[in-house]
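Re-running Sestrin-1 to confirm reproducibility after the cluster update. Everything else is unchanged from the original entry.
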Amino acid sequence: ELGIRIPRPLGHGPSRFIPEKETIQVGNEDAVMHTLFADSFAALGRLDNVTLVMVFHPQYLESFLKTQHYLLQMDGPLPLHYRHYIGIMAAARHQCSYLVNLHVNDFLHVGGDPKWLNGLENAPQKLQNLGELNKMLAHRPWLITKEHIEQLLKTEENSWSLAELIHAVVLLTHYHSLASFTFGCGISPEIDCEGGHTFRPPSVSNYCICDITNGYHGVEEIQASPVATIPVKSVCEVEALMEKMKQLQECRDEEEASQEEMATRFEREKRESMFVCSSEDEESAPARDVSRHFEDTSYGYKDFSRHGMHVPTFRVQDYSWEDHGYSLVNRLYPDVGQLLDEKFHIAYNLTYNTMAMHKDVDTSMLRRAIWNYIHCMFGIRYDDYDYGEINQLLDRSFKVYIKTVVCTPEKTTKRMYDSFWRQFEHSEKVHVNLLLVEARMQAELLYALRAITRYMT
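Result of re-run:
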């Protein structure tokens, strides 16, 4: 009546992929989750949708929030406005306007120069110089060499120190992988963000206008669909997967493949991963408001070992996170190595010993297959792992989802999310995304840190 336009949420709940009634409702959380919500609110000034989806796994969320808070707000080599700007640069590489918008606000809040937001060319030369590393880390980290590191550390007045560069690399990898989580879980923008609201008057007149302001949309009742029946095929899917895990365990106990055979299986899996591509593979031009934060918009993911290119395999026993990367990060940016290590471990070892409706299941074989498949796509090989297990445990629709979320997250669709593990809980699919996020981040870090180590030696 007063002519005030009242925004209505465009989406329902924190995720476009997970029905709102199946997410954890604020007010119904337990004491542990409540503390995490409070911590998230204190750190970010809002309870964001990433937190509301990640809270399916409180132990991981706690580690994630602690790490992110340390990277953005605690003492460190880079000034605060640089940190948020690097977050913008990294998220923009994957056209993740959700994260870009959050950090634009944070960047201005900590005193960043609004002119920098008009485009990367308006930022200081030092940050512009980071553009090349940003694009390679996001799309083809195996191409990073010690020469790229040298260029950043030796460019006279715009040079980076080693400590600053480590901070920047961790931020870039953090936001590339967080973009994967955002798209992989279909995170919706909050009501106050671009794309999160509309001002259209409600089209249904059977509820009061004040309901809209209270966040009630009435749509659930109108569009209530009949209860979905679970297809028999997807029930069999779970049983079949458990049976395969059992058979693989028995084969492991009986015989072990030779080193040559293991190497052959890795090469085969690496080649096969090239032929896994999303069906929605059309080129999409990045939106102008996001693409202005990075250069070379045509540069994107290309397979690790596509025809005519030979990039040597990255062998984990030559350079691993545990033996090399961790200590390098911790030495140059104290405590961050420890925080990242804890986060990797929690994601990799997280289990509730359940699979869909089954309890008391050892899922370690499945978790390892997912992690190692991602590293295999990045050309990283574990000598003690039998890559033949991947094809047994991960079916094609699941591989399409994994590769899309990890390599081209902006192309992830609800159809891809729905098409794998149809019988599993949404919390289990979110758990898969945590594995994807951390395996991707570690793969990027390994290539960057190995190049820095080579430069230093």
